[in-house]
């Protein structure tokens, strides 16, 4: 089984690049989204908040399965662009909730309408079982890589 790590990396990278090419070539409304300067993770945050406005950063971090600092950076960029606002939690002043602004809501609806449909089409060659397996395996790979990064971040150079 040796030698698969590089092959997996190449395939994941190739799929990522192919998805971006499809989006650019096929999806004209996505051009408008690119011009806003948001990336896919930021778009997903907007889409999540469209359904459940007022989540905490911790809840968003959990849904995206990323680090708290990465989520914080995404939220900050969206806030600076005027798409989100943070409000102190009435229950806990140390926590804040994240809400869409009016322009954020418009952009979230546009993202949902264009990019999410495109993502579903990209996976249409897979059965539901294959999608579940791929999701599970990529999640496991991502968690393992994240664990290694976390362990390595405490090392001194």
From TrEMBL:
Report the superkingdom from the record.
Bacteria
Residues in HTH marR-type domain copies: 1-143
Q: Does the keyword Protein transport apply?
A: no
Which keywords has UniProt assigned to this entry?
DNA-binding, Transcription, Transcription regulation
Q: Name one GO molecular function term.
A: DNA binding
InterPro entries, per the entry: HTH_MarR-typ, WH-like_DNA-bd_sf, WH_DNA-bd_sf
According to UniProt, the name of this protein is MarR family transcriptional regulator
């Amino acid at each position: 089984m040796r030698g698969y790590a590089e092959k997996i990396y190449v395939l994941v990278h190739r799929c990522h690049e192919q998805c971006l090419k499809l989006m650019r070539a096929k999806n004209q409304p996505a051009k408008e989204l690119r011009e806003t300067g948001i990336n896919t993770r930021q778009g997903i945050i907007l889409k999540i908040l469209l359904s459940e406005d007022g989540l905490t950063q911790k809840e968003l971090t959990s849904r995206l399965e990323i680090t708290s600092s990465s989520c914080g950076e995404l939220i900050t960029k969206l806030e600076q662009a005027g798409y989100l606002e943070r409000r102190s939690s009435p229950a806990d002043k140390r926590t804040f909730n994240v809400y869409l602004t009016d322009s954020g809501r418009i952009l979230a609806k546009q993202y949902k309408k264009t990019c999410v449909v495109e993502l579903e089409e990209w996976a249409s060659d897979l059965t539901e079982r294959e999608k579940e397996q791929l999701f599970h395996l990529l999640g496991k790979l991502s968690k393992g890589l994240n664990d290694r990064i976390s362990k390595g971040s405490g090392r001194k150079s």
